[in-house]
Amino acid sequence: MQRRAFLTLAGITGIAAAAGLWYRRPNTGQTSLRSEAASTTGSTNASSTSQATTATSNSTSTSSTTAPSTTASSTTASSTTSSSAEPAAALVVSVLCREAWGAKPAGPGMVEHPIDRITLHHSAGPSNLARNAPGQIRSYQRLHQTSNGWPDIAYHFLIDAAGNIYEGRDPLYRGDTGTNYDPTGHFLVCFDGDYGAAEPSEAQLAAAVDLFAWACQIYDVNPETLGGHRDFAATECPGDALYTVIANGSMAEAISARMAEGELQFTDICGDAAETTIARIEAGA
Ligand SMILES: [Zn+2]
Predict the structure, then answer these.
(1) What is the predicted pLDDT for the residue at 70?
(2) Which of 124, 216, 228, 239 is the 20 to 30 A CA-CA neighbour of 42?
């Protein structure tokens, strides 16, 4: 099973460019987690055909989710390993799209790069509370664009303490750093908050594992490349408490295990569904 999964990864290497194009495409529809979950749980036996159908017939709900996953699932027998042991919906990575958290558009000067490793950061931000995360993420983007002069927020994705994932800079483009290393090739994920002493939550770690597993699958990256910012530059980032899961190898191991379970499906949450989610996060619910 594992071997099959990795053979499949080799098979989708060629669609990395297509995945980038897919990723770049603006979100026109709202991709609801609900419909994605429903379509995957309701179709465990015929996943490849039903997903293809969803992609073509239900343009309002899945316009941006299915390009890489459909291609991948047509080459994998994804249902062979996951249908009974693991609910299909568990393989969905739900991400709050940029519009949802109020991102400003990216400015000029973005540089394309091929992703060849995965790297974890923390924001060392003012609060570790999930309810403050949308506002803090807006403030990071403002800081990065106006004070630092970068085209966009430095990170590709951010994860709050409750495990909500926020879309940052398009991973097709190299991130930015105020420290002395070259972020070319790095898939940059940032935990919002300060994890020098505070432990990351289970939900946050699980979200990171899913997101990294998805990235390793579509960009054909080895999970063993996982590093913390401090592995590349003189910085405390991502904080001692968070760095532990990198140093002891447990996160890379969890990412590999997740990848072996099947193809992770990336789902953008936008529009009304996103507003509802952000309101719930900000209410501390
Ligand atoms: Zn960092």
Answers:
(1) 34
(2) 216
